[in-house]
C-alpha cells in the first residue's frame, strides 16, 4: 500500500511498475474461500496453494464483478489487457472468475481509482458501479488507499529520508503539534468506503460483497531496509502502523456494510519487499539515483505469479 500506488494513475505515461503478484494469489484464495462459505473471508495459506485449495471448495457463481484500484487490476503484470487502467489477465479478479466457474464476469478494476470512482467516471473511464448488475452474485472491491493521497505521502517520505535517514522525519512531518494527518485522512475515507459499499448493495441486493484490504510492503516488525526501500529508518514502523490503521478502517466498514473483509496483510507478513528473493512476494523498488529522482515511480515490482492450475 505504502509505495507503488503513489503513481497508480491510469493516464500515467512511460514504463509502468509491476503490480503485486501477492494479491493475485493471496486474495484469490481468500475471496474464493469466502464465496464458498458465504462468510467472513480468512487468510490464504500460500500463493499457488491458496488458488488450488479454494478452487475445489468454491461453488460456481453467476455474474461476478470486480471493482478496485491497481492492487486489484494488476498494473504491470503480463499480459496487460487494458493499457488505460493497467489491467492484467493474471490479476486476482481473473483467477476468481475462472476458479469459481462464474457464468459471466466484469473486471473494471483501474489503477489510480479512488472510492469516488465507484460512482463517478475516472478520466473518461465509466463509473465502476456500471459493472454491477441486479443479478450479480459476487462483488470484490479493493479500494481506499488512493483516497489518502499516497503520491504526496510517499514523495514527502522519500525526500525527507535524504535529510534525516536514521530518524523518522516523515512521521514527524505528518504529526506536528500532536496531530495525525494520515489518521485523519483514513477517517475521512471511511464514509466514502461506506457509500461505495451501499451503492454496490443497492444495485445487487443479493450479491456477496468482499472488501479487499492492503498487504504488507515493509517488515511487520518495523525493521528498516534502507538499501532496498528508500525511507528513513524510523519511518518504516510508522508506515506499517498507517497501513494497519487503513485496513482496520476497511474491516470496520465491511462489517457495518454487510460485506466480508479479505485480509491480505496477515498472510503477507514475512514476505515483504525487504525479504530476499524466493521469500518475498513483492519485489523492492528500483534504487533511487539521488534526491532529485522519483524512485516511487518504479517502486515495488511484483513478480508474475505461476499460472493457475
How is this structure best described in words?
- With 309 residues, the chain is α/β, with parallel strands linked by helices.
- Helices cover 36% and strands 10% of the residues.
- The strands form 2 sheets. It has a 5-stranded parallel sheet with strand order 4-1-5-6-7, with helices on both faces. A two-stranded antiparallel ribbon has the order 2-3.
- Helix 1 packs parallel to helix 2, helix 2 runs parallel beside helix 4 and helix 7 (181-203) runs parallel beside helix 8.
- The model is unreliable at 1-21, 35-58 and 286-309 (pLDDT under 50).
Sheet having the most strands: 5 strands, parallel
Helical segment count: 9
Shape summary: globular
How is the largest sheet built, in terms of strand order? 4-1-5-6-7
Low-confidence stretches: 1-21, 35-58, 286-309
The whole-angstrom Rg is 18 Å
Let me know the number of strands: 7
Helix-and-strand structural type? alpha/beta
The SSE string, one letter per element, is HHEHEEHEEHHHEHEH
Q: How widely separated are the two ends?
A: 28 Å
**What helical percentage do the residues reach?**
25-40%
Percentage of residues in DSSP E strands: 5-15%
Mean pLDDT: 79
